[in-house]
Amino acid sequence: MTLEQLSPPPAESDSDRDRRTTTLEESDGLLEVLASATAREVIAVVRESPSTPSEIADELDVSLQAVTYHLRRLQRVDLITPVRVRYSTKGREMNIYDLSTESVTIDLAGPGM
What we know:
The protein is α+β, with helices and mostly antiparallel strands. It has helices at 3-6, 28-34, 37-48, 53-60, 64-76, and strands at 19-23, 80-87, 93-99, 103-107. The strands form two sheets. A two-stranded parallel ribbon has the order 1-4.
């Protein structure tokens, strides 16, 4: 049995991901993360296909360290989440990341306005 066969089967893609609304006051961290072009590129790669950090780094031609930095920040604002684990040919666990939400809306009027 190969390591690839030991990996859990791919999770079915949820085409109807949650949509999220946040207020302007609560969006500071989100906007700060999205100000980075690299973070937006990471989102674009993951949107096309759930990927490991090394696959994202290869696709974007950036360092693995840069990708893991942006993945951590994107997870902190709940835009990306690990969805499953795959094993490398060397037997190492690799998280596969996907979008946490389909869209985020920032309500400029805020609650009660």
